[in-house]
Amino acid sequence: MQRVFGLVVLALSAVLVEAAASHPALDGLHALVQRRLADHADSFTFQLSEDEGDSFVISDTKGKPGGITVECTTVSVCARGLYTYLTDFGGVDIWWTGSRLDQLPSHLPRVGKPVHGTAVVPYRYHFNTVTFDYTTPFWTFDQWELELDWLALRGVNLPLAWVGYEYILIEVLHEAGLSDTDISSFLSGSAFQAWNRFGNIQGSWGGGLPMQWVNDQFALQKQIVTRMTELGMTPVLPAFTGFVPHAMSSIYPNASIVNGSQWSGFPSALTNVSFLEPFDPLFATLQNSFIKKQQAAYGANVTHIYTLDQYNENNPFSGNISYLANVSAGTFASLRAADPEAIWMLQGWLFFSSETFWTNDRIEAYLGGAPSNDSMIVLDLYSEAAPQWNRTSSYFGKPWIWCELHGYGGNMGFEGNLEAITTGPIDALNSPGSSMRGVGLTMEGQEGNEIVYDVLLDQAWSSAPIDIPSYVVSWVARRYSVKSLPAAAQEAWRILSTTVYNNSNPNNQAAIKSIYELEPAVTGLVNRTGHHPTLISYDTNATIVPALQLLIKAKAENEALAAVPEFAFDVVDVARQLLSNRFIDAYQTLVATYNSTNVTSESVQRAGQPLISILSDLDTLLGTNENFLLSSWIAQARNWSHGDDAYAAYLEYNARNQITLWGPEGEINDYASKAWAGLISTYYIPRWQTFINYLASITRLGRAYDSTTISNQLLLIGQEWDARTWGEGPGEHWGVSGEDVWELVDKILATWA
Ligand SMILES: *[C@@H]1O[C@H](CO)[C@@H](O)[C@H](O)[C@H]1NC(C)=O
Ligand SMILES: *[C@@H]1O[C@H](CO)[C@@H](O)[C@H](O)[C@H]1NC(C)=O
Ligand SMILES: *[C@@H]1O[C@H](CO)[C@@H](O)[C@H](O)[C@H]1NC(C)=O
Ligand SMILES: *[C@@H]1O[C@H](CO)[C@@H](O)[C@H](O)[C@H]1NC(C)=O
Ligand SMILES: *[C@@H]1O[C@H](CO)[C@@H](O)[C@H](O)[C@H]1NC(C)=O
Ligand SMILES: *[C@@H]1O[C@H](CO)[C@@H](O)[C@H](O)[C@H]1NC(C)=O
Ligand SMILES: *[C@@H]1O[C@H](CO)[C@@H](O)[C@H](O)[C@H]1NC(C)=O
Ligand SMILES: *[C@@H]1O[C@H](CO)[C@@H](O)[C@H](O)[C@H]1NC(C)=O
Ligand SMILES: *[C@@H]1O[C@H](CO)[C@@H](O)[C@H](O)[C@H]1NC(C)=O
Ligand SMILES: *[C@@H]1O[C@H](CO)[C@@H](O)[C@H](O)[C@H]1NC(C)=O
Ligand SMILES: *[C@@H]1O[C@H](CO)[C@@H](O)[C@H](O)[C@H]1NC(C)=O
Ligand SMILES: *[C@@H]1O[C@H](CO)[C@@H](O)[C@H](O)[C@H]1NC(C)=O
Questions:
Q1: Cα of 526 from ligand 9 centre, angstroms
Q2: How many beta carbons lie within 10 A of that of residue 589, not counting itself?
Q3: Residues 631 and 651 in one domain
Q4: From CA 18, how far away is CA 708, in angstroms rounded?
């Protein structure tokens, strides 16, 4: 039996219905409706019930024709109930490319028989620590607002909230007696903070982190946390991790401070981060200071869940079982001393990435240091391909979240395994002794492949694996949301969803990088698997080609599609993938030509031409769409400069270096590469042309291929490119080009299909 707040009031009068609807906890949801559906601000009534669990009922409002009532157990669930109505009945949705909720019919469709929804897990999680650098580092609150509405409506109730961490950390370090110089030599650049927070890197290249940045990010975080809370989400906030400036050892000579391991080939000065061991009393002091200051900044009870990672790609000082248990016991005790309800959230990537170190007894000891089973939440970070819960007896009883890792470095290639993300969570939930409590998205970068994200978040509301074919039909219908959607559009997505997005090869999951984004070389680019995969597991001719042809056919049958931003986005994206895959063939022909016995410098140049031609077509194509522009990324970065040119140049360097060299000397070269207009024309094309010229010249001179020579030459191109200012070079312009995307796609199909 449902007990509903305001039920009695409801019966009394229509005026009081409004009063019941405006339960203060629901103000944020009403504001969302006002923001996205202003024409329907009065149509929706939300009622919080006292029932247990996460469930909602959608029905037609009694006595109010055209009104819709959502009864729900929490504010987050109310948002999900609203979303279910908007998508299933209203046929509209909100996308990363924008909200189309305002296209809800003015006459609201009736629900008829009430619709019930129940979450199968209490936690719906979103973000990875590194998403805050690969995707959101330069976002304004407007961009956050769209993202948070997108999350809230899909029922996410546990988002990570890292923005502005340094503000509070700096206060804590000051209080501990460290100087500004001690601290500034520790902090990393505006596009690299995630890895400083993880203790992978310390310090900056390209200039120290300005205090203006720290202050602006802190102000932004206040807005983000407030909005998350208003929308019924519990932000997962940071805590003190133990990573400290080297100077901490001079100020506290007796403190237990060890040097962390070296990370990703960075020179010692930029890595080997000092780690204050959590059993040292100083750790608890700094933790208490951090949590208290954070509570003062954002509110005492906005969360009790803390993200805290000490060994992400960073192995412990010792593998001794009692040492590991001691570290986690000290860490957890410090959290509970500062917040008696604290729960420690751990990003479980370490157990996969450092699997040989993290044997089961070490994992058990480390997790066991936090007593009881309600003390932690572990993110099983890569559940779709490399789950760890199944080798750790469900994390030895600790609650954990089934997560999809996606978009390595924000790479944009098509990738997804819809089968794994529908059956996987349900099988895990039903496995004997399972302590799984949530599903979530832990993408490194949130770029493209939106269907994958939708499917997983929807799976949280279905106890059986979602039926993909019927799901895709309704997803496409609301994504393009035109009257009489041509069957060809559905057919395009049927093909993609059953092939490209049904990739069950465990060796190239998470993201597919296009080889033209990698530093040119004669070997090592094609068919890569593992952490930087380039292997394409589908037949382009039977998937991408017909999908693109069908989308273009759909547009010919209904020109209204041309005006749908998501349709234009998808056409550009599919054509992008076509050109990316064709580049592989052209590259292989170039290498074969270079290796052939009758090779001449002219034949190398001739074989190189198609590579440049594909990249040039690709740049022109991407230039038509604001979602595929280097200039958008750089403009976002410079936007934080307050008109200070030196600061703008600093921000631009950070933005450029992350997507290219990733480090002063190409330490993680091309890891966060992007398919963006402007990046292709000003960076990838010159790199490939240099490479082609190199092959032609050594052929002419009869010299052997020397990977160091060419690699050094290409590194210099990268360093010069990173130091540039956008807008000053030839062909560099802000914003979309204005070329006709449909004509371009026709040409691409004619040439490359
Ligand atoms: C560090 O320990 C030594 C030896 O126990 C002691 O003499 C010294 O006073 C301590 N220094 C500080 C700063 O606590
Ligand atoms: C840590 O490394 C730095 C150099 O990066 C060195 O100066 C310092 O002495 C080391 N500390 C310890 C405890 O090994
Ligand atoms: C940095 O870490 C590596 C191990 O990852 C170690 O060999 C090296 O000695 C460390 N350097 C310093 C200065 O601690
Ligand atoms: C936070 O919640 C606790 C109870 O869980 C309460 O005692 C405390 O007063 C609250 N703090 C604030 C500032 O609301
Ligand atoms: C682990 O550390 C404990 C406590 O310091 C020590 O007694 C034990 O011998 C160590 N075990 C190993 C295998 O080194
Ligand atoms: C943790 O290690 C410290 C320092 O070695 C020691 O004093 C403390 O007793 C240990 N705590 C536990 C719970 O083992
Ligand atoms: C866990 O599941 C994955 C994916 O199904 C599988 O590859 C792996 O072998 C399993 N591990 C264990 C220990 O069962
Ligand atoms: C934690 O959960 C595991 C597995 O369900 C169980 O064996 C263990 O007893 C629990 N521990 C505590 C302290 O409740
Ligand atoms: C890559 O894999 C494809 C398909 O498995 C194969 O045809 C091709 O020869 C491979 N290329 C290289 C360079 O390994
Ligand atoms: C794919 O189509 C292209 C262009 O028609 C053709 O050159 C190529 O051989 C085809 N590849 C395969 C694997 O069928
Ligand atoms: C081309 O030559 C390189 C050595 O220069 C060799 O490693 C590579 O396997 C050859 N590639 C092909 C496709 O023949
Ligand atoms: C080189 O030889 C190959 C076969 O050995 C032939 O297909 C190709 O046309 C020749 N290229 C030139 C430029 O002569």
A1: 7
A2: 15
A3: yes
A4: 72
384, 286: one domain: yes
Beta strands in 342-485 (DSSP E): 343-347, 376-380, 400-404, 436-441
- Pocket test of ligand 2: the residue of 185, 201, 244, 246 to mutate, having most ligand atoms within 8 Å of its CB, is 246
Q: Is residue 471 part of a domain?
A: no
CA-CA distance, 495 to 475, in Å (whole number)? 14
> Residue 606: nearest ligand to its CA?
12
Q: Can you tell me which atom of ligand 5 is nearest the CA of 323?
A: 2
Residue 742: both structure tokens together: 């449909």
Measured from the CA of 595, which atom of ligand 11 is nearest? Answer: 1
| Residue nearest (by alpha carbon) to ligand 2 atom 13 | 258
d(CA 123, CA 380): 13
**pTM for the model:** 0.95
| Encoded tokens for 241 | 């991790």
> Model confidence over 363-405: pLDDT tens digits?
999 999 999 999 999 999 999 999 999 999 999 999 999 999 9
Give the closest residue (by CA) to ligand 12 atom 8.
Answer: 598
Farthest CA pair distance, the chain: 94
Helix (H, G, I), strand (E, B) or coil at 237: strand
Q: Which pLDDT belongs to residue 6? A: 37
For residues 442 and 127, is the Cβ–Cβ distance under 8 A?
A: yes
Q: Which CATH number is 82's domain given?
A: 3.30.379.10
Is 327 inside any structural domain? yes
Token look-up 């199944």 returns 390
| 239 shares a domain with 379 | yes
Counting every residue written for the chain, the total comes to: 753
Gap from CA of 323 to ligand 5 centroid (Å): 8
Please say whether the beta carbons of 616 and 735 come within 8 A: no
Cα-to-centroid distance, 501 and ligand 9 (Å): 20
- The total of structural domains in the chain comes to 3
Ligand 3 centroid from CA 288, angstroms: 30
The Å distance, Cα 717 to ligand 11 centre, comes to 25
Q: Is 521 in the pocket of ligand 11 (CB under 6 A)?
A: no
Cα 595 to ligand 11 centroid, rounded to whole Å:
6
Ligand 6, pocket residues at CB < 6 Å: 279, 326, 329
Over the stretch 301-348, which tens digit does the pLDDT of each residue have? 999 999 999 999 999 999 999 999 999 999 999 999 999 999 999 999
Q: Which of 251, 252, 268, 274 to mutate to test the pocket of ligand 2 (most atoms within 8 A of CB)?
A: 274
Q: Verify that 567 and 616 share a domain, yes or no.
A: yes
Q: What is the pLDDT of residues 283-305, one digit of tens each?
A: 999 999 999 999 999 999 999 99
Structure tokens at 25: 């906890």
Q: Which structural domain, as residue segments, surrounds residue 635? A: 515-524+560-752
Q: Is residue 505 part of a domain?
A: no
Last residue of a domain, one of 431, 466, 501: 466
pLDDT above 90 as % of the chain: 94
- Residue closest by Cα to atom 2 of ligand 7: 387
Centre of ligand 4 to C-alpha 174, Å, is 28
Query: What is the model's pLDDT at position 22?
Result: 65
